[in-house]
Sequence to fold (418 residues):
Amino acid sequence: MTKQFKAEIIGVGTELLLGQIANTNAQWLSEKLALLGINVYKHVVVGDNLQRVEDAFRDAQIRSDIVIVTGGLGPTDDDLTREAFRNMSNLEMEEHIPSINKIESYFKKQKSAMTPNNRKQARVFKGCSVLDNKVGMAPGMIVLYEEKVWIFLPGVPREMKQLVTDSVLPFLGKHTGSEEIIKSLVLKFIGIGESQLEHEISDIIQAQSNPTIAPLAQNDGVVIRLTAKEKSEEKANALLVQTKQQIMERVGEHLFGIDEQTLGQQVISLLNKKKMKIAAAESLTGGMFMDKLISESGASSVSRGGIVCYDVKVKEEVLGVSSKTIRAHGTVSEECALEMANNVRKKLDSTIGISFTGVAGPEEVEGKSVGTVYIGVSTNDGYHNVQEFHFFGDRNTVRGRATLKGLEIIFKYLKTIK
Fold:
């Protein structure tokens, strides 16, 4: 019978406890370990205090088979990971020559003096496996101590991820002797809630044990993660494809991406494919829609730009919304949203114009309640449409949901045209 390895992840750093930095490392590591069939039983965060770090290490040594520690490998006095483990294990340390050479070379190239404390980053435990940090200074380490595996990694996410991908995962695959291939596929949906999605495929979820099906709500829609275990990658992929097809037959109209694809990327791809350009007039969202779009690569080929028209005078004098419309219907109205979308399309010589106006809060505007949002779309082939929404949440939540809904509207519109 294959041994079930218990893993634990310890994040070292007071900044994690204070909430100054989110512990995204633990989340990412847990996902990667799950793909190897390694169960993570505990996430621990401990501040930069030598005794507390040492205590956390002693507890982990007792209860876990694999302990991954992130953070505390830097050059300063509050980087205490090495010292705490040395106190617990009594293992000797030494200076790793390739690492100190690398550190010295860096400072030489920068033409700056290397302070003595930087040598600390090259300190490793005797007999450990040193992991080459290709994007930072401090190397990682794998230490076998009293039949337990200890893995020490920098806390900087890009450094940690490089070491895990290049060195840690291959090592753990061999160490655990896992004979199964574990493959995952992420399906991303928009325009359908988590509960509705789960209801539509509830019988598929109940009938499946391999792949497992896990619906998850995220900020940019709903995600379904499929995870298959098989003896070969080919068989695992076949299971994923089969289950994906079952799900697509039920809710495929709401799919916008797979794995790392984003809604913004998909909108840009469709705009490029159809040789269209988009412009935005943003009151409520204040530029969030264009920011979301422009943050994706390739946006320059499809986006003319946008006009942030938060003030009524900007709506009239810059965007050209008629004062008659505003007097008759107000700025938070279907009529204003339609003129905004139409005018920004014309002014910025675009195929599609989209507009956002509404009430983000904290108080109602023009008799409209907080969360009331109008999103208008105007195209150069005569298509005009305005939709009214009522979003719940605080000011920035309403603005964020309006931005996401705008992307969804454009995505669905582009899918309908030839």
The two ends are 56 Å apart (CA to CA). The longest strand covers residues 221-230. The domain at 181-258 is CATH 3.30.70.2860 (Alpha-Beta Plaits).
